[in-house]
Sequence to fold (116 residues):
Amino acid sequence: MTSNSTWALVFLSLSYAGMLLQQPNLTAVALDTGRQHPGAVLGMINTSAQVASSVSSIVFGYLVGFSGNYNAPFIPMVAILAFGAIVWLKVDPTHQLFDEVGAPQPLLAVAAETTV
Fold:
């Protein structure tokens, strides 16, 4: 919410850095909670993010059209991001989402068992 282009660039860069800094954490939590199925967890995270991104683009347009101000959508956006940060603190990466069914066997060992 600044009219100075330099500060706008600084704030946009910081927000982009914040988005990029979360990705390794999301991947680590998906690996910890998914155990043998981290792809399913990462897929759910990615799908949720893409749906939220699509919906927020539409809502952003409606808020700008309703208020006539491009700054208006940033207030609910900041509130939702703050809520997400608080919820993120409640995530327990030691909690497994899927039951362990046993260690997976290497593909060559399975092939050797079926030919003998």
Observations:
- The chain has one domain: 5-98.
- Helices lie at 5-34, 38-67, 74-88, 107-115.
- The CA atoms of residues 81 and 87 lie 10 Å apart.
